Amino acid sequence: MTDFSAWTQACQTRMESVLAEWLPPSSIAPQRLHEAMRYAVLGGGKRVRPLLAFAAGEVTGTDPDRVQHAAAAVELIHAYSLVHDDMPAMDDDALRRGKPTVHVEFDEATALLVGDALQSLAFDILASQPLADNAAAQLKMVQLLAQASGSRGMAGGQAIDLASVGKPLDLTELEFMHIHKTGALIRASVLLGAQCGTLSDTTAAALDHYAKCIGLAFQVVDDVLDAETPTATLGKTAGKDAANNKPTYVSLLGAARARELAQELRTDAHAALAELGPSAARLRQLADFVIERTF
Amino acid sequence: MTDFSAWTQACQTRMESVLAEWLPPSSIAPQRLHEAMRYAVLGGGKRVRPLLAFAAGEVTGTDPDRVQHAAAAVELIHAYSLVHDDMPAMDDDALRRGKPTVHVEFDEATALLVGDALQSLAFDILASQPLADNAAAQLKMVQLLAQASGSRGMAGGQAIDLASVGKPLDLTELEFMHIHKTGALIRASVLLGAQCGTLSDTTAAALDHYAKCIGLAFQVVDDVLDAETPTATLGKTAGKDAANNKPTYVSLLGAARARELAQELRTDAHAALAELGPSAARLRQLADFVIERTF
């Protein structure tokens, strides 16, 4: 097995070129929209969701040439959500991945359409060529991504988040919000990667539990980083949650306990993979990566 | 054959209940988002796209119990586009189907999420149960709807429309815009309805040509109505295109020639269906309906 950082770099490079291939070139009409879509997606991001998809694909022994398209679909859903979340009507953020956000670099109407069109493209990709062992299984993948993105998944989590500004959420309510807002798409990344191959119910249940732990850990670490990292290092506006009086794991638990919680979730994530043997090695490394990341 | 107005009413009633069934109830979290999604979709609209899907389903002799789900998916894409188009960053419209628009009745952030979540729900529906003769054909339906909705379809048309405000478009450019903005989804409605059954290449080509004529005719008539109908009758703000200095068929051709053009497109639409016999009777009636409508 190549070392983890070489593997992540290889996946990220592959992802960049797959996304660049799927996104329409800015030379074809409507040019400005296509230019803005490429601006929103290419040249940045940790690609955590694609990494999870590739790693989960290894569990079912799937060809990464298949998984890369499922990974691209999930990443486009994630990218669209960032574009819309950054808009003035939502988080009103000017900086993302160290660059001006789409509505700042282009304009609000374009940002709205970029998000809309990226979502459509995600489903186009997921339906466009054989990705699973059969077409019926692939339809289930489309359904999974649609549900993870929609009102009972990511978009719903965003709505709960907006409704919670300035409200004293308790830990259960905060977890409920994040299970939707971040967790649903993280879970979809893991399951879609694995579903490109043949996935047994037992393995699916193990991956599901792993994904739940990782999704929450990701958010806990995000809250710690948001509270403690300067904007320049983070590549997005730091300290916004506190400024907006938004409940976070840090505001509810304190930074020390939040860091402990992240470690507990890492342990749980590893435990979930216990039965899967060496095929889950990359997923184990990703659990460590998500908890130990500093940006 | 039941008369046309009884048939449209039956389809509209069926559509309303299918949509009401697919939309999550406002009793489950996130309640406000679900309430706003239902507000955006239910209780109004001519349901032209579902009518086209049902009529096209008759060409391939398909059970309407299948077609209704494809029709719901298309209608949700249409509904999401209206919610986003009405937002201040786009057309900034306060009235739709005689009611306050979603961002006015709720708020901008909710309108943004309503559109996003309606799009996801459309793909969820299209992938959720057997709608075509086999799963591979159904994946192609997902792909068709995604492409019709995305940057080379409806969202792209909207981008071209925004870029055209105050610019002297010629007729070819105006047609290019509408083929994307309205035409792509009208075409998808017709083809998806037919694809719920077994569709030959010849019939698909005929339906494709029919749909192109109807899509353009729909827009020409829209422009005439927008120029000549009072807001109260139209149920949305009238005269906006002229006020925004947007090119329309009426501003380019004058109202009289625009009306003539709509009649020519009706003739073309009928000609496209010539080989299809009695199975295309509803599509013929819909061509007449689209041209003769007064709201």
Brief descriptors of the model:
homodimer; 295 residues; mainly alpha; Farnesyl Diphosphate Synthase; two-stranded antiparallel sheet; 1% strand
The best one-word shape of chain A is: globular
Q: What is the succession of H and E elements of chain A?
A: HHHHEEHHHHHHHHHHH
What is the fold named in CATH at topology level of chain A? Farnesyl Diphosphate Synthase
Oligomer: homodimer
Mean pLDDT figure of chain A = 93
Count of all domains of chain A: 1
Explained architecture:
The structure is a homodimer. Chain A has about 300 residues and is mainly alpha-helical. The first copy, chain A, has one domain: Farnesyl Diphosphate Synthase (Orthogonal Bundle), CATH 1.10.600. Chain A is about 70% helix and about 0% strand. Chain A is built from 15 helices and two strands. Chain A has a two-stranded antiparallel ribbon with strand order 1-2. In chain A, strand 1 and strand 2 form a beta hairpin. The first copy, chain A, starts with a helix and ends with a helix. Chains A and B meet through helix 2, helix 4, helix 6, helix 7 and helix 8 of A and helix 2, helix 4, helix 6, helix 7 and helix 8 of B.
